[in-house]
Amino acid sequence: MGSLLLGGLVFVFLSTTTAIGLIVRGRLPDHHLNAESKDVIRLATAVVGTLSALALGLLIASAKSTYDNAEVEMRTAAARVLLLDRVMAQYGPETGKARQLLRELIEKRLSRGWSAETTDEASGKALGEYQDIEAVQGDLRALSPRDAVQRSLQARALEVSGMVAETHWLLVESGKEGLPWAFLTVLVCWLGLLFATFGLQAPANPTVLSILLVCALSVAGAIFLIADMANPYVGLIHVSDAPLQSAIERLGKP
Where are the membrane-spanning stretches (predicted)? Predict the structure, then answer.
């Protein structure tokens, strides 16, 4: 589900629960909403409000951590690709094919997007990304070093290419994690209860209704941020591919 759609659904849900509270308010006997009753309602909802605030804060912190980690992974991947290319350049012209394969791998990644869903898809004659990495490693293993320097460079290139492959598989596995839907569902239900009690206690005038709608929109915006940052390679708030764009400009140079 898209983060914008999720945020919109949460806004509609909270607005609906507020409207339900307003409708119930108009049908309850007056003594159900006297001062003592409202005090008890406020005390009870304060507990739910505190839990909701804690849960919302934890989800935002978790989503922000996921986003920051993805940003670091992007920069690290670009640095490793550049390092691998430079090590192969130092080895000699025998690595020309492997360097070209490495460049094509990055071009494919940029065209397909940095996401677990597209990274291993085969398109026509194009292989999945993991097969491209393995092709580069195969060319490196096929090299015949002439001296100790080339043997050292070959070993280093294989080591770095292994780290590039590891980054790929980490992306694939972490891409399956997604949002903690059970946690998020419980949180939205708590928020719905809170907004229902707001409607139950609020007088139905334009000022109060406007404030409640703005609050519902703010909470829905927070849910949108959580959903969007929890999938850092897609969506409106996504990790920039500028490090890879910068890396591809340097690949293949002597």
Answer: 43-61, 181-202, 208-227
Return d(Cα 149, Cα 152) in angstroms, integer: 5
Q: Give pLDDT tens digits for 137-151.
A: 998 999 999 999 999
Cβ pair 70, 229 in contact under 8 A:
no
- The number of residues making up the chain comes to 254
Q: What is the pLDDT of residues 99-142, one digit of tens each?
A: 998 888 888 878 776 555 555 554 444 445 567 788 889 989 99
**What are the sequence ranges of the domains in the chain?**
3-26+34-250
pLDDT above 70: percentage of residues in the chain: 89
Helix (H) or strand (E) holding 132, with range, is: helix 129-141
As to burial, measured by CB atoms within 10 angstroms (0-12 exposed, 13-18 middle, 19+ buried), residue 110 is middle
Rounded Cα gap, residues 114 and 129, in angstroms: 11
Name residue, tokens 């949180």: 187
* pTM, two decimal places: 0.77
The answer to whether 63 touches 229, Cβ cutoff 8 Å, is yes
What are the backbone dihedrals phi and psi of residue 123, each rounded to the nearest 5 degrees, phi first?
-130, 105
Q: Which of 220, 217, 195, 214 shows the shortest CA–CA distance to 25?
A: 195
How many other CB atoms are there within 10 angstroms of residue 18's CB atom? 25
Residue showing tokens 């009690």? 197
Tell me: pLDDT of 250 over 60.
yes
**Cα separation, 141 vs 157, whole angstroms:** 10
Task: State how far the Cα of 62 lies from the Cα of 83, in Å rounded to an integer.
Answer: 31
- Residue 95 gets which letter from DSSP? G
